[in-house]
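Hey team,

Filing this mostly as a record. A colleague (T.K.) asked me to run one chain through the structure pipeline before their review meeting, and I want the input and output archived in the tracker in case anyone asks later how it was produced. No errors, nothing strange. Just documentation.

Input sequence:
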Amino acid sequence: MNQSSSQQHVADLHGRTLGDLRVSVTDKCNLRCNYCMPEEEYTWLPKQSLLTFDEISKLVDVFSDLGVSKIRLTGGEPLMRRDLHVLVSDLAGKQSIHDLAMTTNGVLLNQHLPALYAAGLRRVTVSLDTMQPERFRALTRRDDHKHVIESLRSVAGAGFVGTKIDTVVIRGFNDDEVADILEFGKTVAAEVRFIEYMDVGGATQWSKNKVMSRADMLSALRARYGQVDAMASADGGTAPAARFMLPDGTTFGIISSTTEPFCSTCNRARLTADGTLYLCLYAEKGLDLRTPLRDGASHQELVEIVRNSWSHRGDRGAEVRLKQHDRQSFIPIQQLKNDTRLEMHTRGG
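Output structure:
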């Protein structure tokens, strides 16, 4: 896919150019991971407030005109959105989008692989935090570990490439499994990305002593494998993961948002399933795009709304959090209950 000649790149107050859009297609999820959704019951976005596929397509065109060429579909769990392959087909056909991917927990992925591939999707990222079924059950309060493993074992055979495994590493829970997950990644042709435990959204059980830093992960991996070499940054330095290589050539990434933030190069925006734009994972307020869209705003009017928002962006949320000496979980539980858009399962990762 080629970028449209009409694209106009827009920079924020720190010179960061908009280039990457996360699109949440639903706030619902079929797991209850305690670092994201620690409660069993949630207030979901009203169905009528969710963007239709046509509305998502129109807003993607708006962002595309401002320089976005990478789209990632997220949730909640995106495969809980009915007929997702229809949206995938539309987005995959846009000449301005040269990278279309999806992040999923993998529970439903296996059954949807043929339709997604036929629709034009070629890259998926699957969340997998443990190789142990009993730990998976303790983390997610669901018994779907085998389905996630089956999905990952099927992805390459279904034609998908560039598969990634996202693993949130929590000290005292799964920090002893980093090598095991790396070894599993080798068997399914997937690159593992370890993610430091972040204090965003519904991470109400977060504390500093549960964070395993990038330095600690590398130390553990060097104890197992010996030399671990840093690799050159990908995507012009805007990719969130620092990448490394093992002696046998295996590559992996570490996203160290908590201890070594990458705010200075962050080029991504997030669109919730009901059309609210967030410019930072730590942002407490977003911009409503659904209302002007449904009120008949023209394409160019929407472009100017988004351009104005991004050009005034000054967010460096993770860096601000890093400087807080008494750092606790970010959003109190009652505030989360009052505004579901503050939840990670609503705004996407």
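Quick notes for T.K.: The two ends are 25 Å apart (CA to CA). Residues 1-5 have pLDDT under 50 and may be disordered.
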